[in-house]
Design a protein that fits this description.
This protein is about 45% helix and about 25% strand. It has one domain: TATA-Binding Protein (2-Layer Sandwich), CATH 3.30.310. The chain starts with a strand and ends with a helix. By secondary structure, the chain is an alpha+beta fold. α1 crosses α5 and α3 packs antiparallel against α5.
């Protein structure tokens, strides 16, 4: 199952995280959560991993439409975006494919929301390549 899509960005990790947040905001997403996996793995397990963050992005208007259509779709929200250090010194940005919601529910109203979210996230990905 294709559950996401990625892009590779040249530049510093923290700068890329900021660029991702700004590109998400330009498409109407806010970041509700920011999980620092590198810190969590060090603090909880004493393990060192490369910089890796999970951003919980939410577009309130799209989330509201999805919840109106099917309240339990909240289990699939927000749209997760990962930012991680790549092996080659670049930064890899990954996006959860909102079409997963369509595959997990038979509700046709979710299809419209997923398509809109997917289009926005693809524009975010494309903006990062610029």
């Amino acid at each position: 199952m294709n559950y996401g899509f990625t892009t590779t960005v040249e530049g510093a990790f923290d700068t890329t995280v900021q660029r991702v947040v700004e590109a998400l905001q330009a498409e109407g997403f806010g970041v509700l959560s920011d999980i620092d996996l590198q810190k969590a793995m060090k603090d909880k397990l004493g393990k060192d991993i490369a910089p890796h963050r999970i951003l919980g992005a939410c577009n309130p208007a799209l989330a509201y439409k999805a919840l109106e259509a099917e309240v339990d779709v909240g289990l699939l929200l927000p749209c997760n975006v990962t930012v991680r250090a790549g092996d080659d010194g670049n930064v890899v940005v990954g996006f959860l494919n909102p079409e997963i919601m369509v595959q997990l529910t038979a509700n046709p109203a979710i299809r419209e929301v997923a398509a809109a979210a997917s289009a926005r996230l693809h524009r975010v990905r494309d903006a990062l390549g610029a």
